[in-house]
UniProtKB/TrEMBL annotation:
Annotated coiled-coil segments of the chain: none
Keywords carried by this UniProt record: Calcium, Metal-binding
Protein name (Swiss-Prot/TrEMBL): EF-hand domain-containing protein
RNA-binding keyword on record: no
GO terms for MF: calcium ion binding
Boundaries of every EF-hand domain copy: 38-73, 78-113, 114-149
Gene source species: Polysphondylium violaceum
């Protein structure tokens, strides 16, 4: 399965205007069709990560570089969508991982009474490889745990 083929497929599925690029409206439309919540936030986050030249369009090379991420963030799967929303809200430095500070900030913005304690507890439980970050696989487990509560 080639990256190039994947990215052409992804471009085809989003590029409604046929200009061989994906703009924010097109990405929003795709996310809405997938019933994603917080669409605007997720779109901004995806562009922050992927639109390296800042022209508000994702061109072929940008799509190719980020295709696995783009597919994940626009997936039909609920957990993937929830992870995308969580990252869009909490990943302030755009490294697609959450460190303790980012978690703490997110938790306090969401009304958690003891955000720093809670962030510590979450990392202790879900940061399985103990690198100090929740990255995608770990994030999925965290989000999944929350959904099943
Ligand atoms: Ca981060
Ligand atoms: Ca980790």
């Amino acid at each position: 399965m080639g990256r190039l083929r994947d990215s052409i497929k992804f471009l085809d599925s989003c590029d409604f205007s046929g200009d061989k690029a994906i703009d924010k409206q097109e990405l929003s439309r795709v996310l809405r069709e997938k019933k994603c919540e917080n669409v605007d936030l997720v779109v901004e986050y995806i562009f922050k990560l992927c639109d390296k030249n800042g022209d508000n369009k994702l061109i072929a090379s940008e799509i190719q570089k980020n295709v696995s991420r783009l597919k994940q963030y626009t997936s039909n799967e609920d957990i993937a969508k929830k992870c995308a929303i969580l990252l869009a809200k909490a990943d302030s430095n755009g490294d697609q991982k959450l460190n303790e500070k980012e978690l703490e900030k997110y938790l306090s913005e969401n009304g958690e009474d003891f955000p720093s304690l809670e962030a510590f507890v979450i990392l202790d439980e879900f940061d399985v490889n103990k690198n100090g970050f929740l990255e995608m696989g770990e994030l999925r487990k965290y989000v999944k745990g929350k959904v099943e509560q």
